[in-house]
Amino acid sequence: MEAVGLAVEALAMHHERTEIVTRERTQFVDLTPWVRACVQRSRIDRGIVLVRALHTTATIVVNENEPLLLEDLRQMLERLAPENGTYAHDDFARRGEAIEPDERRNGHSHARAVLLGSAGPVGVTDGVLDLGRWQSLLLAELDGPRRRSISVMVLGTRRDRA
């Protein structure tokens, strides 16, 4: 067995947050330009970027930002977790915990978030997001309209800058 030596470079981290106000109950917002700018500002050449919606009724997905496809996704979510369905989460009398005065009946939104999952880390290669030709990073708003907090963490090695 041959030993392979690895040069260990210092890892750098860059973090940014932004707020987005959504306008629709179910909406897809393309975050790709903002995430690309975050990667650029990070000066990280090789690494990963993690984009997170800091909410339980919104998530990040990687897919094509094409209007007809996004309408198909809205319809699929309505079939799988209908807004007018019955959800124990929406039975405030049974929840037995403090309910906020502006609490929404949004069991369907939580179910939809679980169905969509969350985008995993996306690679950064040569200082650029490693996305496929048709891939975009989309915020999936599932309980809007709302103000949403989005977090981006870029981790990797920095390119040398003078």
- Give the integer mean of the pLDDT values: 93
**In what order do the strands lie side by side in the largest sheet?**
1-8-3-5-6
What class do helices, strands and sheet pairing give?
Answer: alpha+beta
Number of strands: 8
CATH topology: Jelly Rolls
| SSE arrangement, N to C | EEHEEHHHEEEE
Number of helices: 4
Ranges where pLDDT stays below 50 over 5 or more residues in a row are none
Domains (count) = 1
Helix content: 10-25%
Q: How much strand?
A: 25-35%
Q: Using only CA atoms, what is the Rg? A: 19 Å
Biggest beta-sheet profile: 5 strands, antiparallel
Give the SSE layout.
Elements: E1 12-21, E2 27-30, H1 32-42, E3 44-53, E4 58-63, H2 67-80, H3 92-95, H4 107-116, E5 122-125, E6 128-129, E7 136-141, E8 147-158
Antiparallel strand pairs: 1-8, 2-7, 3-5, 3-8, 4-7, 5-6
What can you tell me about this protein's structure?
The chain has 162 residues and is of the alpha+beta class. It has a single domain (23-83, 105-158), classed as Sandwich (Jelly Rolls). It is 24% helix and 33% strand. It contains four helices and eight strands. The protein has helices spanning 32-42, 67-80, 92-95, 107-116; strands at residues 12-21, 27-30, 44-53, 58-63, 122-125, 128-129, 136-141, 147-158. The strands form two sheets. The chain has a five-stranded antiparallel sheet with strand order 1-8-3-5-6, covered by helices on one side. Strands 2-7-4 form a three-stranded antiparallel sheet. The longest helix has 14 residues, at 67-80. The termini are far apart.
